[in-house]
Each structure stands twice: as structure tokens, then as C-alpha cells.
Amino acid sequence: MSDTFDILLRLVAVLVAFLVLPLLVGQAEHKVMAHMQGRLGPMYAGGFHGWAQLVADGVKFAQKEDIVPADADRRIFQLAPAVALLPYLLVLIAIPVGPHGFVGEALDAGLIFVLAVMGVGVLGSLMAGWASANKFSLLGGLRTAAQLMAYELPMLLAAASVAMAAGTLSLPGIVREYHWWWTLWQLMGALVFFTAGLAELQRPPFDMPVADSEIIFGAYTEYTGLRFALFLLSEYAGIVVLCGLTTVLFLGGWHGPWSGSVGWLWTLLKAAALAFVVIWLRVSYPRLREDQLMKLAWTVLIPISLAQIALTGVVKVVIS
Questions:
Q1: pTM score, two decimals?
Q2: Which residue ranges run through the membrane (predicted)?
Q3: What are the residues whose beta carbons fall under 8 Å from the beta carbon of 272, sequence distance 6 or more?
Q4: What is the DSSP letter of 208?
Q5: Which pLDDT belongs to residue 212?
Q6: Residue 273: which of 259, 257, 252 has the closest Cα?
């Protein structure tokens, strides 16, 4: 009975985090962009520091008409938002927040699990683009496929470097093996992993598949109302997952002063700092061209990630 209650408690905690954290990131993006770009709505909506902007956005999406194009593949079109969103819920189950079993489920091959499931989320964009019966949506879906193929490899190689260093594929195990000097040693891998993750999420400046000035928001052109909102929510859920994984793999997760009692707070603070960087990059840099996007992956990130693996091998041999 106690085991069943423990499982239910963990599932509820993961579900609450999945429902709350992406909304907090969305509200933070409203505020950060408002301050950096002088946007009036997020600054004043609701009267007190723009608190009502996110509420207004939610009401706007909820009252919009739900439209399915006449020539669309109806079932695939309606299923795509769920396929884009739900994998991030599964990934959150395996990300350790604190010591002493503060994780939804500690998997022996947790790193392989989270990277595999994150790859499934991109299929939502592919399904949406193909099923919409719209040439702009199809082009956005094809760009998504090309971007996934290009940036999945450096992301896996960077994560493999950390697994080599720790000697385990378990995410809690990787955090337990962390030493403070790993941050410098694995810095190249951290930059590659974080950059490739942004590209897989199609976040600016890697948002060519949703380029509003070229292909009218790409794979999501025909989506309205709550289905469109689910795609946006999947983006923010992806930010939470990416920042959480980067924290666990490269920044020591719960390690910090008094980590035995407030380790979960260190994990959240590090992930929040990375989320701010994600928003900052959106405000600061213009969108890359498609050729620049591919060139960055194949000629820059992949060689750097291979060099990081070689460095990890050398350091491991020297240490042993």
C-alpha cells in the first residue's frame, strides 16, 4: 500500500511540475521580452506589473474557433499537438531534482530514455505539416525533419561525453559522480548540447521551420485555438526539459551549499538561469538562414562534440 501511495505521489508531483513550470517560463518570457524590447502589454496588462498577460493569452486561445481544413488528414491533424506535448511529460519523470530519491523514476539507462523520448516530440511538427494539406505547412515539416537530423547527432555525442566521464547512463548516477571541475572540462559539450537542444525545439535563432515571414508559421499554419496553444505549451515544456537536462548533465544538478537539505532548490535555480538565457537569445539574435543552420550543425557542432569525446577519453585514462 505504501509503495502504491509513493508511486501516485511521484506521478502527481511530476504532473503538477509539467502543468506549472512551462507556464512560469511563458510568463517569464513575456516579462523579459517586455523589459528588453519595451513591450507595453506584458508590462501593464492587469495593472500590477503585467500579471494578466498570460491569462489574457489563455482566454484568447480558448475562445478561438477550432478549425480543421477540409482536405486535411483529420485524425493525424488532431493528434499532432498531443504527440508534440506528451513526450516532455515522460521525460520529466526521469529527471532528478534532488538527492535521496527526489526523482519520478530512477532509470538505469535514463539518459538513453530521455534523449529517445525527446526525439519523438519533433514528430508532432512533422505530422502537423504533412496532415494540414498546405504547402507552407509541408515545407515547415520538411525543414523540421532536416533540422532534427542535423542537430540530433551533436546532442547525443555531447551527452555521451558526460556518460563516459561518469561511467553510468543513470541521470541520478551522473549527478552523484559530478565534481566541480567537470564544468570546465565539459564546457564544450555543454555548449553543444544546449545549442542543439534549442535547435531541436525550433527556438530563435533556430526557428527556420516556423519562419513567419517566409512560410507563415510553418507546420502550424492551419492550427487555431487550443490546438495551437498546445504547440506553444510544448515549446515551453521543451525549454523546461532542456534546461533541466543541461543542469543535471553539465552543472551538477542538486550540488551546492547545503545540498543535502535544499538540493532541489539548486536544481531549480540553475534551470531557471538557463531558461533566462533561452529567452535572452530569442531577443538578441536574428534568425539564421537555412544554409547557415545546417552549416553550424555539420561543420561546427559535430566536430566540437567529437573533440569533447576525445578529451573525455584522454582525461579518463589520465585519472585512472
A1: 0.91
A2: 7-26, 76-97, 109-132, 153-174, 228-251, 263-284, 296-319
A3: 243
A4: G
A5: 67
A6: 252
What is the Cβ-side half-sphere exposure of residue 87, based on CA atoms within 13 angstroms? 24
- Helical packing angle, 123-131 and 74-94, nearest 10°: 170
Residue 208: Cβ within 10 Å count: 25
Peptide bond into 205 cis (omega under 30): yes
Name residue 176's amino acid.
Answer: R
Q: How far apart are CA 136 and CA 214, in angstroms?
A: 9
The residue type of 300 is V
- Residues 77 and 85 sit within 8 Å (Cβ to Cβ): no
How many C-alpha atoms does 209 have within 13 Å on its Cβ side? 26
Who's near 16: CB < 8 A, 6+ residues apart? none
Quick check: helix, strand or coil at residue 292? helix
Query: pLDDT tens, 268-299?
Result: 999 999 999 999 998 888 888 888 888 999 99
Identify the bridge partners of residue 98 per DSSP, sorted by sequence position: 102
Angle of helix 123-131 relative to helix 110-121, nearest 10 degrees, comes to 20
* Residue 319 burial (10 A CB sphere; 0-12, 13-18, 19+): exposed
Orientation angle between helical segments 123-131 and 135-166, nearest 10 degrees = 170
- Paired residues of 102 in beta bridges: 98
CB-CB contact of 165 with 192 (8 Å)? no
Closest CA to 240 of 37, 99, 127, 97: 97
CA nearest to 125, candidates 93, 88, 81, 164: 81
Over residues 162-181, mean pLDDT: 90
d(CA 228, CA 231): 5
Cα dihedral 311, 173, 108, 114 sign: negative
CA distances from 73 to 100, 158, 224 (A): 47, 38, 16
Amino acid residing at 117: V
Q: Which of 57-61, 78-82, 135-139, 316-320 has the highest mean pLDDT?
A: 78-82
* Phi-psi group of 101: left, alpha or beta (phi > 0 → left; psi -120 to 50 → alpha; rest → beta): left
